[in-house]
Amino acid sequence: MSGSIITLENVSWAYSRARDWALKNISMSIEEGECIAVMGENGAGKTTLCRLLNGLIPHSLEGKLAGTVTLDGMVTTACTVARLAEKVGMTFDDPQSQLFTARTTDEIAFALENLRRPAGEIREKVQWALDIAGLSAYADYAPSALSGGQQQRLAIAAALAMAEKILVLDEPASQLDPAGAREVLALIRGLRDRARLTVVMATNSGEEAAEFADRICVLKNGSLAALDTPRRIFSDQHLLDDCAIAASPVAECACRMADLGKPLPRFPVNLSEAEESVAAWYE
What we know:
Layout: E1 4-15, E2 23-31, E3 35-39, H1 46-52, H2 56-59, E4 63-71, E5 74-75, H3 81-85, E6 88-91, H4 104-114, H5 119-132, H6 148-162, E7 166-170, H7 178-191, E8 198-202, H8 206-212, E9 215-220, E10 223-228, H9 230-234, H10 237-243, H11 249-259, H12 271-282
Parallel strand pairs: 3-8, 3-9, 6-7, 7-8
Antiparallel strand pairs: 1-2, 1-4, 4-5, 9-10
Helix pairs in contact: 4-5, 4-6, 5-6, 6-7
């Protein structure tokens, strides 16, 4: 990691005609290459935070913005949505709402063509995005013929082809069956290996957050309740209860053992850590 690529300074946002702030005085920094999970109960502000990071707020949604959002050195209020789209790609919880072309390759190429990128560059980026999403064999398929997991992977591939540095995912697995969710989460875990790619993912799943996140941003009623490692977040039972967050099953088991007076040597947040801790506990 090489310094902050996303900075929010005293950011508040209220939607038009809303009486309350959707986000209140948020200040945080995200480093280049970092993977952040955004958690909180429904209505806590997860989707609003995602919209701040790709320019939908304030450029496409009406409301009142206070504070400053800076993405890779650009203040969002001073940049066009098109310019921000070259830095930040975003997908939503329903992939079908984002897909509208006749072929998988056309879906990935669409935004690049609108930016009038050279044909050779478009072909190269389309193939790269298909490969990284595991969709090369489906290049000529209609998006409607793909499974739910494949459609979400296609939406992510299209975002990656456009964005240079930041990927924002708003609950990408929430509407998928278990098999589709596993496909998408495997892709997200694979993206961690892209050294310069920063990933921000809103999720209600403690298991998802434990698997991929370097840090977890916890929101409550639009305010920043915590920003820390998964280990510290999931070991804080008071925080979890107060913000209505479900820990990963592994973390829940570790908390239960601690309550019984038999704590594990190291608090685990994922399955591999649990295997190590349980083995050490038996020894």
